Amino acid sequence: MNTEKLIAAELLNIKAVFLSPDEPFTWASGIKSPIYCDNRLILTAPAARKVVENAIAQTVKEKFPEAEVLMGTSTAGIAHAAIAADILDMPMGYVRGSAKDHGRGNRIEGRLEKGAKVVVIEDLISTGGSCIDVVEALREAGAEVLGVVSIFTYGMKKGVERLAAANVVNYSLSNFDTLVGVAVEKGYIAAEDEARLKQFMANPQDESWMNK
């Protein structure tokens, strides 16, 4: 089993990613979705956590061998960045959603030298907005952001286009299409639901996928 399928299987097994085409979830945006992702559950599942964190570390080594610092996104990416940094014996920090309103007013936590080669660790890529915001904050601080390693991506057209426009390279351990395929193979969803799920991801605003 390749890494994408292995990670997908782990996420499904611990219900970090949950598929429910017949009883959709409602996202904060109001969109009805057949998929819900909560990668924080990885932290409470030691076996899955070991697989995921080792895969993050291996991806950093293979894709960004010149990396000097890992920076986690706040808050979901922080723990994953810390564990991967420990595996790699690398410095680690994180980027807040906004600067503190007290103390030194930091937004970037941890020592970051100008010119440092940074890899951002993110748990989930959807529209890409929060990830790009972190990358821009690091660039403004003088870091050289080599790219992003994320655990899972929906592969949304909007997200892919926004990352490309911001010149952000992302490598995800797994993705929506792979996960749906594994879900069918392992019986989490019926084979006929695969097309419905892919229809949703092609156009999340179009609710016609809910019609069987």
Describe the structure.
By secondary structure, this protein is α/β, with parallel strands linked by helices. Helix content is 39%, strand content 22%. The chain has 7 helices and 10 strands. It has helices at 3-13, 46-63, 76-88, 129-140, 157-165, 176-185, 193-202, and strands at 17-19, 25-26, 32-33, 35-37, 69-73, 92-95, 108-109, 117-125, 144-153, 170-175. The strands form 3 sheets. The chain has a 6-stranded mixed beta sheet, sandwiched between helices. The protein has a two-stranded antiparallel sheet with strand order 1-4. It has a two-stranded antiparallel sheet with strand order 2-3. β2 (25-26) and β3 (32-33) form a beta hairpin. α1 packs antiparallel against α2 (46-63) and α2 (46-63) crosses α3. The model has no long low-confidence stretch (mean pLDDT 93).
Spatial strand sequence of the major β-sheet: 7-6-5-8-9-10
Main sheet attributes: strand count, strand direction, barrel closure: 6 strands, mixed
Proportion of residues in helical segments: 25-40%
Radius of gyration: 18 Å
H/E element string? HEEEEHEHEEEHEHEHH
Percent strand: 15-25%
What structural class is derived from the secondary structure elements? alpha/beta
Give a short overview.
By secondary structure, the protein is of the alpha/beta class.
Topology readout:
Blueprint: H1 3-13, E1 17-19, E2 25-26, E3 32-33, E4 35-37, H2 46-63, E5 69-73, H3 76-88, E6 92-95, E7 108-109, E8 117-125, H4 129-140, E9 144-153, H5 157-165, E10 170-175, H6 176-185, H7 193-202
Parallel strand pairs: 5-6, 5-8, 8-9, 9-10
Antiparallel strand pairs: 1-4, 2-3, 6-7
